[in-house]
Write a structure and sequence with these properties.
Layout: E1 2-5, H1 15-19, E2 24-26, E3 32-34, H2 44-52, E4 59-62
């Protein structure tokens, strides 16, 4: 699994960080920073929920 962020689409709202701060951070420039693109499978549900919560649809999970 791989987290993919569309930095052009990111609006810096921070839902991802609020839901999964171990994997996402909104930087000083109000753009998401993916802390680790390859979370373990055991984190799939947690990371997927944060990805789906993004109102800008700037995040995706690839297998």
């Amino acid at each position: 699994m791989r987290i993919v962020a569309d930095l052009d689409a990111c609006q810096g709202i921070g839902m991802c960080e609020a839901m999964a701060d171990g994997w996402f951070e909104v930087g000083a420039d109000d753009v998401v920073v993916v802390r680790d693109e390859h979370p373990p499978e055991s984190e799939r549900a947690h990371v997927d929920a944060a990805v789906r919560a993004c109102p800008a649809r700037a995040l995706a999970l690839e297998n």
